[in-house]
Amino acid sequence: MIRVLTNDGLQKGAINKLTSLGFEVVNNHYDKDELGTALKEFDILVIRSATKVTADILDKAQGGKLKLIIRAGVGIDNIDVPYATQKGVVVKNTPNASSESVAELVIGHMFALARFIAISNCTMRDGQWNKKKYEGIELGGKTLGIVGMGRIGKALAKKAEALGMKVVYNDIFGKQDELSYEFLELDDLLKSSDFISLHVPYDKEKGSLIGKAQFDIMKDGVYLINCARGKVVEEAALLEALNNGKVAGAGIDVFEEEPTKNEALVNHPKVSVTPHIGAATKEAQERIGEEVVTTISNFVTNNLVAI
Ligand code: MLT
C-alpha cells in the first residue's frame, strides 16, 4: 500500500478521497527531529507552510521509500528543492488553488487602510470616536501597481479593475502580450502607483525586493500590500517609511519571521495585519485538497513501476 504522510494536516475531504482510492494516509505531525527518520516509511509527504524540509531531513530519509513531496500551497520556499531533486525526490505544489483567496485578502487590506477600518477597530474598542480623523480615500480612480503578474496578480488585477482602479504591472518575465494592463519597469511602477501589491517569491540570492532605496522613489502617501513572502520587504525600512510619512499604510499578511515578533510593525497605527492567511479560506483549502489528490493520482499512475 502506498503510504502518505500529511504532516501539517490536509482538508478532510481530500484525506477521505485518498483513503477511498486505496492510499494509507497518516495525518500526524512529526517535528523536525523525528521527521527524517519517519519519512523512511512513507512514499509521499504532503506539507503546508509549517514543515521545513531541509537537506538534513532528506539525508535522514535516505534509503527509505520517499518519492514525492507536495507543498499544499503555492510557495515552495520551505523545501530544499535542489537537494530533494538531487536525491530523486519529486517536489510539486498546488499553484492554482488559492489565487482568488489571496487576491480577495489584498483587496480587504486595501479597503482596511484606505478607510481606516483596521485602526478604527482598535481605537473604538478603546473607547475612541475618531470620525474627523478618519477621512479616507476611494480606491476607484487610483493606480494599483502589481509586482509579479502570475495567477494571483492576474486575479487581483481583475478585481481591482472592477473597482475602478487603473492596473499597471511588472513581472520578471516581462510584458505579457495577452494582458491589456500597462507593463512598467519596476522603478517606474514604484514611482507611479498609489497602491503597490507584491506577488513574487523571495529570492535568497538577490535578497529583499523592497528596501529603503525602493521606498525613496515611491509616491508620498503610497499604500503597500504584502501577501507574498515576508522577506520580500525589509521590515526596518518599511517601519521607517511608515514613520516618516512616505507610506500612508501597509497591509501585511507575511513577515520576515513567522510568527512575527515585530511588535512595532504589528501595532503600528498605519498597518493592517493578518497572520499569513492568504490561502486560509474554505474554498481555497478545498481546491488545494482536490489538487493534492489529483497530483498524487497522476504521480502514481505515471510512476507505477517505481512506486
Ligand atoms: C502559499 O504559499 O500557498 C501561501 O503563502 C499560503 C500558506 O503558505 O499558507
From TrEMBL:
Residues 107-278 form the D-isomer specific 2-hydroxyacid dehydrogenase NAD-binding domain. CDD domains: PGDH_2. It comes from the Bacteria. The keyword NAD applies. Keywords: NAD, Oxidoreductase. PROSITE patterns: D_2_HYDROXYACID_DH_3. Residues 26-303 form the D-isomer specific 2-hydroxyacid dehydrogenase catalytic domain. PANTHER family: D-ISOMER SPECIFIC 2-HYDROXYACID DEHYDROGENASE CATALYTIC DOMAIN-CONTAINING PROTEIN-RELATED (PTHR43761:SF1), D-ISOMER SPECIFIC 2-HYDROXYACID DEHYDROGENASE FAMILY PROTEIN (AFU_ORTHOLOGUE AFUA_1G13630) (PTHR43761). Belongs to the D-isomer specific 2-hydroxyacid dehydrogenase family. This is D-2-hydroxyacid dehydrogenase. It comes from Clostridium saudiense.
